[in-house]
Each structure stands twice: as C-alpha cells, then as structure tokens.
Amino acid sequence: MGEAIPRGVERMGEVVAKGAEKKVMLAIDESECSHYALMWVLDNLKDSINNSPLIIFMAQTPSNGNITFSASLGAARMYCPMSSSQEFVNSSQENQRKFALALLEKAKQICASRGVNAETVTEVGDPKEAICDAVKKHGIKLLVVGERGIGKIQRAILGSVSDYCVQHAKCPVLVVKKSQADALA
Fold first, then answer.
1. Which CATH number goes with the domain that contains 41?
2. Residue 176 DSSP label
3. 60 by DSSP, 3-state: which?
4. Where is the signal peptide (predicted)?
5. Residue 152 sits in which domain range?
C-alpha cells in the first residue's frame, strides 16, 4: 500500500500527471531567470507533462501611445503629425510582437530537442494580469514562473510578477528560484 496523503493534498507530479486535461504553463520573458525556469521544468517535470503539451506564455507590454521627444530650448520646433506618431507606435508594437514570437519559437525548439511537445501563446497586456488571465482562459492546472531575484525595495515599489501570480492565479504556482550554486556557474 502507498503512503497516506491527507485529503485535499496532492503531490506536485499528481497535479499535472493524471491526464491531458491537466495543463502546465510556463510564463517567460527575455530574462536569464526565465531560461533557467524553462530548463528546470524540462529537467524536473518532463514525466508530468507527457500527456499534454507544455504551454509557454509571453506577455507583450502594451504601448500607451504617449511618445515623448526632448529637445533643448534653443532647438528648432518639431512638428510631428498624429499619423507619424501612430506609425511609430504601430511599428514599435509590431517589433515587440516579432520579438515575442522569436523568443517563444526558441523556447519551443528547446522543448522539442528534449522530446517535450510545447505550444506557444502570447498576448498583449500587463504581464502580471496577462499571465493570470491566460491561466484562466486555458484551464491551466500548474503555473511555473521564474523569480527575477529583485531586491526587497524594488519588489515593494514595483511589485513582482511572481508575487502577483502567487496571489491571483487560479491554480497552484511554482516559482523557480535559481540556487546560489547555479547563479555562480
């Protein structure tokens, strides 16, 4: 007989290993911490994600459309018609979309090289909220995020994506923290 597990408590592997409906999502960005989290998932959850694809998610920060140009008082006046500003915003958003798709494709290739089927998803929005919305939208059962390792002051002022997800995601959240030994390597 197996060991008794208290009612309502599941092991992490059981959370994601019981069938195709149990989805795991990894939220990434361009940071080294996200790459580390991807490798951690592939090394530690591979058996658990065999029944359904790993969802790799990246948020694209929305452009607010406010463009600020600075010039000295003696500089010539600058006239920037609205259409040019909008073209700049559109170009910036398109470049951000291409960057996100390239980063997601690279992550998908890394998964494929390890024998893991992955799907990629990107959405425009504040990363914290976009991640939690995607969890709900895609029926995610386990969210994995990397920890940036920002200091207490920065975390208090700016907030932390991982902290926000732990508080607001509608599923268990696994925060992958790079160990001191790995940070030195």
1. 3.40.50.620
2. E
3. strand
4. none
5. 16-53+96-184
Q: Alpha helix (H) ranges present in 45-160?
A: 82-113, 127-137, 152-158
The pair of structure tokens assigned to 88 is 């700049």
Tens-place pLDDT, residues 128-157: 999 999 999 999 999 999 987 666 665 555
- Token look-up 């160990």 returns 179
For residue 70, tell me if it sits in a domain.
no
CB 140 within 8 A of CB 171: yes
Q: Which residues contact 125 (CB under 8 A, 6 or more apart)?
A: 59, 60, 61, 62, 133
CA dihedral 72, 75, 79, 85 (to 10 degrees): -40
* pLDDT at residue 21 greater than cutoff 60: no
For residue 123, being part of any structural domain is answered with yes
Question: Which residues, in sequence order, are bridge partners of residue 124?
Answer: 60
Complete edge-to-edge strand list for the sheet that includes strand 118-124 = 118-124, 54-60, 23-27, 140-146, 173-176
Q: Give, rounded to a whole angstrom, the gap between the first and last alpha carbons of the chain.
A: 42
- pTM here is 0.72
Contact 13, 48 (CB under 8 A): yes
Q: Is residue 79's pLDDT more than 90?
A: no
Q: Distance (Å, rounded) from C-alpha 16 to C-alpha 59? A: 23
